[in-house]
Amino acid sequence: MSLAPNDPRDSHDPLDIANALADAAASHSMRWFRTSLDIITKADDSPVTLADRAAETAMREILEVRCPADGIYGEEHGGDRLEADRIWVLDPIDGTRSFITGSPLWGTLVGVLQGGRVVFGMVDMPVLGERWTGQVGKGAQRNGEAVHVSACTMIDRARIVTTSPDIFSPADWQAFDRLSRQCAMRRFGGDCYGYAQLAGGTIDLVVETGLQPYDYLGPAGLIEAAGGVITDWLGQPLGLESDGRVIAAATPELHRAALGMLHARGAP
Predict the structure, then answer these.
(1) What does each C-alpha distance from 26 to 39, 59, 238 come to in angstroms?
(2) pTM
(3) Cα separation, 57 vs 51, whole angstroms
(4) Which end of the chain is less congested by CB atoms within 10 angstroms, N or C?
(5) Gap between the Cα atoms of 148 and 150, Å rounded
(6) Which of 96, 105, 144, 147 is nearest to 128 (CA)?
(7) Which residues contact 197 (CB under 8 A, 6 or more apart)?
């Protein structure tokens, strides 16, 4: 399929393309939400549904038309052209367990790497009707309105969230538990929505482990654009080769303090 001259789809603006990707994914995922689904268990024992696969296929078809030279890294269908300078990282349904159990707190994630660094991120929450987007250097928005992280700098005033205790190894849980018990409030659940809450300033810390690039690169672009800090547990920038341990904070001061507590007393 070729595009006619001046076709609006010819735009290479990440926001314009990501909006099209999220719309396409939602057209499939929402059709299956809270219906009877065939659930397949993947090699890593995580559930996948027909909705996941159909949504990612639709997203990939758009990218093949609009930016065929770009790379793609998706949860369901793997990687293509990963040597490209610009790579789209896709998770059609982040929070598949939430999707399967009828919880509204699942989303579609889109991240863009340029030269190996995250430059754009989207967390789209179709059931909630909230689309969170961020372009590094251009700010972040929720449904077109500017959002920004909080000004929290102290652990004892921080609100912290993680998806589930089940995602942690025993050693990582010990580190998380030590940190989170010093916070003003800790909450569990929410999958990718926790990163959106951080970008919007209603929580201050997200700490997780066992993630894949399609889980954290979309949120990373959003949080950095909203003024926050997000790295691995060693304080290094996130990329395709990161180990899946993620810490996101509202401010550099809070990030440094939380990293220090994660690694206190011989923590890994």
Answers:
(1) 19, 10, 27
(2) 0.89
(3) 10
(4) N
(5) 7
(6) 105
(7) 161, 190, 203
